[in-house]
Structures are given as C-alpha cells and as structure tokens.
Structure prediction request, 138 residues.
Amino acid sequence: MNWDKIKYFKKHEWGKEPEQANFRLIEILDNLRGLSGSKIIINVCWDYTGHSKNSYHYLGNAVDFVFKGELSCLEQYAYISMFPELRGVGFYPDWHTPGWHVDLRQDCLKWVRKNGIYSYDRNIFIKTIIYKDWQKND
Ligand SMILES: [Zn+2]
Prediction:
C-alpha cells in the first residue's frame, strides 16, 4: 500500500482499520473522485459485522459511499460505470444522501435497496436512479 499514490483521500477516511481495505478499491475510488470532480465521503469499507451474509465488506473488497456535490444520481452512476472492475454496484436511494455500494466481486451484479427490500432487477436499478433524480428536481 502506497498512500503517496493516493491523491484525494486521507487514510483515516477509510475507517478504523484502513489497512483492511483492498488497496485496489482505494485506487479506483481515488480515480473516481478525480474523474467525477466530486468529493466522495466513505461511509464504510472493511467491517466485521452489520452487513449481509458473505458481504464483501468482511473482506475489505466493498465500500459504501456518497458523492458530495451537485452530480445527479444518473451522472454518479455514469462515472461509477467507467470502472469495470466495480462489478457489484448497489444503489441506496433511502439514505439521507442517496449513495452507493461498490465491490470487486467476480460476476456482475446490480441492485437497489429501497424500504429495506433488495431488488436485483437491472431495469428497476436504472429506473430507480432516474426516478430519484426526478424526485429531487420536482
Ligand atoms: Zn455495502
């Protein structure tokens, strides 16, 4: 881990035990920060409890975060999707600031968690992102 390579994040922003985070994930989020031009707030990366069974958080291969700024949710997703290594992407429209889970799983999976319910339908995923932007602008 060479934190000198990381342009935008400070180590402490990656939780209580930043060395448990997959460094590739930190590099990708740093590039996402640069590309989007938007500040990113990390909610949690590595964790030992409180996530779904077999969560990638327990391996340090997942991160929950929000963009802080003016990007629409659809713009946010467009930037995320420019990083093909982020094969797992969850959208969480109910958070105080709607945000994202991304992870380095092997197979592509997209989901939304709304009202505590997970949906793995890709059309619902896209429609929920667009609907959230529409609500915000209404
Ligand atoms: Zn997560």
In short: The two ends are 44 Å apart (CA to CA). Residues 3 and 11 are 7 Å apart (CA to CA).
